[in-house]
Design brief:
Blueprint (H helix, E strand, L loop, with lengths): L3 H10 L3 H9 L12 H11 L3 H8 L4 H10 L7 H8 L5 H10 L7 H9 L4 H17 L5 H5 L2 H7 L5 H15 L3 H15 L4 H14 L2 H6 L2
Helix pairs in contact: 3-5, 4-5, 5-7, 7-9, 8-9, 9-12, 12-13, 12-14, 13-14
């Protein structure tokens, strides 16, 4: 499989309508969706290998799974800011959003910039992408300083009142991942959560109640010692 036509043909051969029905129950947009499990897509990506130009082609096919596959095979060093903007606007479900953020967006040189910018956007999945990228950076960018990670705090505070399900869950995710990074950030994340809890919003209370419950757990404190 060395070209877009062959890859799309392969993807369509793996289509599973029963899986599509199941995806719908989990809140995944089933438009242009084939129902291919993530492990199958990862296996296929290893067979293809890294290929930036091919990633651009298959992403433009409009197929849900093709977008996820594209983020697996793309080379983050070759990704432009323009590409990130183009791709993020096409996200239409929490799964393709989170897969792209955790397998490509967070590995590009624009990750921190875009994470912040996207949280200020109105589109639900663009905003989610901002917080999902923050969560992935907090979990995986081991070289980042506490100060750099804490630059996300004002954005988490500002958007914690967004009542949309896929946004508030991503805000919560970012807050929890930051708080699980190390002992100092755990303390600062808990402090931020308590500040957010004072906001008169169901979303803010849900975000913080859930986060505080996890970040104060003994097993988290023990791991961060």
């Amino acid at each position: 499989m060395h070209n877009c036509i062959e890859i799309i043909k392969k993807l369509k051969s793996l289509a599973n309508l029963k899986n599509v029905e199941g995806m719908a129950r989990f809140g995944i947009n089933t438009k242009n969706t084939l129902g291919i499990p993530i492990p199958e897509l990862r296996k296929l990506s290893k067979q293809i290998g890294k290929n930036h130009e091919l990633a651009l082609e298959i992403y433009n096919s409009g197929i849900h799974e093709a977008r996820i596959l594209a983020c697996y095979i793309d080379n983050p060093k070759l990704v432009t800011e323009e590409q990130l903007e183009k791709w993020v606007k096409k996200l239409d479900s929490w799964d393709d959003c989170d897969q792209c953020c955790g397998n490509l967006f967070d590995k590009t040189e624009y990750a921190y910039k875009k994470a912040k910018e996207w949280t200020n956007r109105k589109e639900e999945f663009v905003k989610r992408a901002g917080f999902a990228t923050m969560a992935q950076l907090a979990a995986h960018d081991k070289k980042a300083s506490n100060k750099k990670i804490m630059e996300f705090f004002p954005y988490i505070l500002k958007e914690s009142g967004d009542e949309r399900n896929f946004v508030k869950k991503a805000v919560n995710w970012a807050l929890r991942q930051i708080g699980k990074r190390n002992k100092n950030l755990n303390r600062e994340a808990i402090k931020l959560a308590k500040e957010i809890f004072k906001i008169n919003s169901k979303s803010a209370r849900w975000i913080t109640s859930n986060a505080l419950r996890e970040l104060a757990e003994d097993k988290i404190s023990e791991r961060l010692k």
